[in-house]
Amino acid sequence: MRRLTFVWMIGLLLAISSCIPLNKITYLQESKSVAVDSLMMARRLQPPYRLQVNDVLNISLYQSADERLTKLFSPASGESVSGAGMNGYGIDIRGDIRLPEIGTVKAIGLTTDELQEKLKQILLEKYFKQEDELFLTVKLAGISYTMVGEVAGTGQVNVEKEQINIVEAIAAGGGVSDVGDLTAVKIVRNYPDGVKVHKLDLTDLDVVYSPYYYIQPNDMIVVDPLPQKVIGTGTTGLSTFGTIVTVLSALVTSVLLFTRL
């Protein structure tokens, strides 16, 4: 009888430890110190994004003096960048972009605003005399990032937006699995001085204040598994209960057979 009691106690402890708490798999939970009806605005604290190799740009030009140049810089005229799934002007391995009439321009390390001003000055010096004749815009054609770990779809994801936060990025990539750990999602990011890893707790609403809440092109999002996956008891309470009952039944049967021998 004591052996059976011991077996059931082990089973109970295993069942308790195997259950995934709701607060581990719920996005953006409000702090207890914050009123339910309060409005929380995300402060975009991250520094301006600086262009990297493999970024794809949309560069548009409008001016009344030369329609030929306007057509050359239309979005449809941008090259199709292999592997990126986007049309535009890609930054090559040397950090340059090649533009019609202008030629090769160094773009790596600049913000889109800085590159826009640089191209504008080149065009003004080469083709135009008055700045009010020229309307030039430089924008990211989209954001390409990679998702790995406990996510529905791993691999590269391309989103045709200039800005996207990590929750939107994960949703666009298929979402996190039932055993993915939302409390320590990693962003692996490239910097001029090397690669750095940043961790975000997506269960905490305060994550919107993080300087890493908005992802950047070429980021890698890594979602680690919860300990419950290692135990392998199930992803829902019902499946966990069924697994525990099956294991306990086997243990009880084994104990009864052993005691009768």
Structural topology:
Layout: H1 2-18, E1 56-62, H2 67-72, E2 80-81, E3 86-87, E4 89-90, E5 96-99, E6 103-106, H3 112-126, E7 135-140, E8 143-149, E9 155-159, H4 166-172, E10 185-191, E11 194-200, E12 220-223, H5 227-231, H6 237-260
Parallel strand pairs: 8-12
Antiparallel strand pairs: 1-4, 1-7, 2-3, 5-6, 8-9, 10-11, 10-12
Number of helices: 6
Structural category: alpha+beta
Rough outline: elongated
Could you give a short account of the major beta sheet?
Answer: 5 strands, mixed
* Quaternary assembly: single chain
Taken in chain order, the helices and strands follow as HEHEEEEEHEEEHEEEHH
The number of distinct β-strands equals 12
Give the integer mean of the pLDDT values: 75
Largest sheet, order of strands side by side? 9-8-12-10-11
Proportion of helical residues: 25-40%
Q: State which percent range the strand residues make up.
A: 15-25%
Question: Radius of gyration in whole Å, from Cα?
Answer: 27 Å
Distance N to C terminus: 15 Å
Unreliable segments of 5+ consecutive residues: 32-43
Quick description:
The protein has 261 residues and is α+β, with helices and mostly antiparallel strands. The protein is 28% helix and 22% strand. Helix 1 (2-18) runs antiparallel to helix 6 (237-260).
